[in-house]
Design goal:
Blueprint (H helix, E strand, L loop, with lengths): L1 H10 L5 H53 L13 E3 L2 E3 L3 E3 L7 E12 L10 E3 L19 E4 L3 E9 L4 E4 L12 E15 L2 E7 L7 E5 L1 E9 L14 E9 L15 E9 L8
Antiparallel strand pairs: 1-2, 3-4, 4-9, 5-8, 6-7, 6-9, 7-8, 9-10, 10-11, 12-13, 13-14
């Protein structure tokens, strides 16, 4: 009986300390591998998220630029050029390297929320509009920075006076065309795009040149370049001959990656688009 009990006890012995240590080492190794894999996947996710945000930010910025730059010259601007807005004079519908190197300023008629309430005939020098302000109560026309006006996209004039009570605008010259009731009346603006550092962050700035100064449009935009071409695709710097503008944006991620070797840690992407200026060289 005692002999049988000893055999049973020997068979029920636990694991040794060495076996326990080996098991712990193996378990720790597996945990380390799993943790490292998780950290790697998490880092990849963060990097990809930054890249996606950068690309989306860049596309939104260039899409808005394309929409607005495409309108350069709209409104038969030759009747009022050069224009002086907010103390700056713009000689052309397209002004490269203005107000600073690498920037672009375009002049165009925009808005159209006001309309004629009375029909007009050629030779008149007054128009009556439906409103003098936009939906937010901001002035559309005045004798200062908003003194250039376009009627129907066909002709442009300079405002000499405004009767707020009757909403009658007096022009510096006479109308060239007859215009029906409901014809859109536009404000002529100068719009600038440039890149500058704001609070340590390279930022794409947009300025309507109405006194408010440049406003941030997209952060982490490092570089903005414009190239200009004529209708045959040849490079040109002659403003009246420009028919295509190629806009190029260089963006970077918001955070740097110290493990990205051989660089400053920022991932970068560049996007370029050709903007065809449909209003240049067109006269009514």
């Amino acid at each position: 009986m005692r002999s049988d009990m000893k055999k049973i006890i020997k068979k029920q012995n636990g694991i040794t300390l060495i076996e326990l240590l080996v098991a712990l080492v193996i378990t720790a190794g597996l945990i380390a591998i799993i943790y490292r894999t998780f950290i790697g996947q998490q880092k990849t996710y963060v990097v990809q998220e930054q890249v996606v945000d950068m690309q989306q930010n860049m596309r939104i910025a260039i899409n808005r630029m394309m929409t607005e730059i495409r309108m350069a010259g709209f409104g038969n601007l030759s009747m009022v050029l050069p224009v002086t807005i907010a103390g700056n004079t713009f000689n052309n519908a397209i002004n490269v390297n203005t107000p600073t190197a690498g920037a672009l300023t375009i002049v165009y008629a925009t808005g159209g929320t006001a309309t004629l309430t009375n029909a007009t005939t050629a030779g008149q020098n007054q128009v009556v509009v439906s409103t003098l302000t936009d939906t937010h109560g901001n002035p559309l026309f005045d004798t200062g920075n908003r003194r250039y006006i376009c009627i129907g996209g066909l002709e442009s004039h300079t405002i000499t006076s405004i009767d707020n009570g009757t909403r009658t605008i007096t022009l510096n010259g006479t109308l060239l065309f007859n215009h029906l009731v409901g014809t859109s009346v536009f404000t002529i603006k100068a719009l600038s795009y440039q890149v500058a550092v704001v609070d340590g962050i390279p930022t794409l700035l947009r300025d309507e040149n109405l006194g408010g100064g440049p406003q941030p449009q997209a952060e982490h935009i490092e570089n903005l370049q414009f190239a200009t071409f004529d209708g045959d695709g040849n490079p040109t710097v002659n403003p009246p001959a420009i028919r295509v503008i190629r806009a190029s944006l260089m963006a970077r991620t918001a955070m740097s990656d110290p493990e990205l070797k051989g660089t400053d840690g920022y991932r970068r992407r560049e996007i370029a688009s050709n903007i065809h200026l449909r209003n240049m060289g067109i006269s009514p």
